[in-house]
Amino acid sequence: MRRAACALMMTLCLMLSGCGGQATDEVDQLTLDIRGEYLALDRVTAQMEVGADYGRRVYAYTMELDWQREGDTTVAVTAPETVAGITARISAGETFLEYDGVSLETGPLDESGLSPVGAGIFLMKAATEGFIAESGFDILEERDCLRLLCRDPEGAPGEGTECTLWFDKDTHDLLRGEISTDGQRVIECTFTSFVRVETTGEDT
């Protein structure tokens, strides 16, 4: 696991070094710091406000995320009341979602099967291992942030699935994430609570 993390960090360093030739400036250094911290995460618990835009239909949910690098990850829907209590689980090594109770009748947002209940998991994957195509400072609700844009390294800007993440500049907590498909934003997610648990053991 740590060898893979080191390889990802080396790739990120090389990528940033090629962007303007100033890999040691504040934006690039903070990008490296945050990526390193998220590579070391064991677990995240969070509360999220999730909006999903299907064009003619727009849905809004409140969800609780318990993301784990090893073990089961769960997403519990807490609002609206009509679907509160639905829980989705992803087991280690599996790529599908299992729903307890009545399923959310929204359908996938794109051809990859992305759905509102999987948004938090998608954002965590982008934060820990997504290819960072752009980075810069931003202000989000009067908070200084680092903004990262992740996408397929072989894809063109505005094509396919892209993910934009906003991290608090001081705490490095994930504050917001947006997912776009072919330039159209389909999911926006605001984190109202975000608690990180980092790896503490020695590499063996």
What kind of oligomer do you see? single chain
Q: How many domains make up the 3D coordinates?
A: 1
Shape: globular
Average pLDDT number: 82
Question: What's the short story on this structure?
Answer:
This protein is 20% helix and 42% strand. It has helices at 2-17, 26-39, 119-129; strands spanning 41-53, 58-68, 73-79, 87-90, 98-100, 132-140, 143-150, 161-168, 174-181, 184-198. A ten-stranded antiparallel β-sheet has the order 5-4-3-2-1-10-9-8-7-6, with helices on one face.
Give a verbal description of the structure.
It is a single chain. The N and C termini lie close together (10 Å). The protein has a ten-stranded antiparallel sheet with strand order 5-4-3-2-1-10-9-8-7-6, covered by helices on one side. The longest helix has 16 residues, at 2-17. It has one domain: outer membrane lipoprotein receptor (LolB), chain A (Clam), CATH 2.50.20. The protein has 204 residues and is an alpha+beta fold. It is built from three helices and ten strands, in the order ααβββββαβββββ. α1 packs antiparallel against α2. It has helices at 2-17, 26-39, 119-129; strands at residues 41-53, 58-68, 73-79, 87-90, 98-100, 132-140, 143-150, 161-168, 174-181, 184-198. A hairpin with a 5-residue loop joins β8 (161-168) and β9 (174-181).
